[in-house]
Amino acid sequence: MLDRLRQPVEQSQAAWSRFVDLYSPLLFSWGRQVGLADTDAVDLVQDVFAILVQKMPTFVYDRHGSFRAWLKTVTHNKWRENQRRAAAHRETDAPVPDLPAPNSESFWDGEYRQHVINQALRVMETDFEPKTWQACWQLVVEGRPAAEVAAELSLSVGTIYAAKCRVLARLRQELAGLLD
Length: 180
Description:
Helices cover 70% and strands 0% of the residues.
């Protein structure tokens, strides 16, 4: 996905749409967790995406680096900038303090990963035939035996395992570089 986002916007609209679907709820949730009102959290999400649209064409993913850490930095910096701007409008004569980043390490370390996986699964579901999706979901997420799933969906056990492989391969492909 990161490679597709580096292409000109005209060629990468589908990738951007998927990326926005994947990350908007995460960034909004982070904004709400640091105390922003809904409208301010929406503004933060839009501001972060405006930066990403500018930066992604030249972004080079470092396999030893972390997209998550970079996104966190971009989000924190935009939040700080917005906080300083709001403080400056409230008290024009008072110095604007250097605001510390919110204590949100657990969000970026735990919730980020879970959210991105869940959101990717939600977005990807429409990319597969319903039976293929159900076969994988029931086998992997629900932990049901392949023979039971096969009987319920009127498919062979081999087809159930093939569905699992196809969906999980696609999930790995979609999330490459995003989970570090």
